[in-house]
Design goal:
Distance between the termini: 6 Å
Order of helices and strands: EHEHEEEEEEEHEHHHEEEHEHHE
Structural class: alpha+beta
CATH topology: Deoxyribonuclease I, Chain A
Strand content: 15-25%
Number of domains: 1
CATH superfamily: Endonuclease/exonuclease/phosphatase
CATH architecture: 4-Layer Sandwich
Helix content: 25-40%
Length: 333
Amino acid sequence: MRIATYNVEWFASLFDDDNQLYDDGEWSSRYQVTRAQQTAALGLVFGALDADAVMVIEAPNHGRRQSTVAALKHFAAQFSLRAREAVMGFSNDTEQEIALLYDPDKLTARHTPQSAAGAPRFDQTLRIDLDVDATEDAVVFSKPPLELEVTTKTGFAFQVIGAHLKSKAPHGAKSEADVLRIAIANRRKQLAQAIWLRRRIDAHLAADRPVMVMGDLNDGPGLDEFESLFGRSSVEIVLGEGAAALFDPHAKQALSRRLGAAPTSARFWIAPEERYLQALLDYIMVSPQLCARDARWRIWHPMDDPACWQNVALRDALLAASDHFPVTLDVDL
């Protein structure tokens, strides 16, 4: 079975209020890419993935008129994708939803939000002391993680959590002091979200439920200078330690290689420096029960993956479709 996670930049901008694709020559929200070009590129990428399930990060908007599920089903029909059913959890106000697009002939997926002491439902509030001042802070997810119970047609059941953690970027900063203050505050909030997520993982593992955590964690080991201030990255917190640790080979490689080349899953243009920044932000982390089932990972990076590089149409589509690249897990389920 192939399971993927894919952050699709500005996916929402490709759909009208009736959940239909614009698919025209107007500019998309991606630089110098029309809506028709981005739509076609996404169709090619999703078709090449041919996944049984795709966790779509920044999925189309859900609101008073728009429907994430309807938009994704329309997209799947447009490109005759096997993954043609969709499920989402709690909607949010960012126009960046989290949803699973899946093949109903291979599996079922059901939204199953959990709640426990110290780890409330993801659409609620976690109270935690972020700055060691003996005062609890209120932490929320702007994009509540999607909790699913997935069951394959062979009867194997496991828990899936799709996550999009808070960005650490100091948006709105007007001075160097603002940059420092906002960046530290954002990292604190992101770490709190990671702790919240890890508590949920621990609850599933304690109940002997296999767990898969996937999506854009907006973090990776060694990505910024504030990591040393807090001791650990959000990735390390979510992965955990010891017998209860989750596994992702790309995260492991990055954690063990602070210097030198490491895997990357996203590519951003840094205008002031006139260059691209590449980072590992997208993960599929699995518990030992899933890892033991001949699990094989791949980042569909247009320059780093030889098969993607050699397929010119796919390479160009990956670059036009999003600033993130898909990550897949092939596993015997």
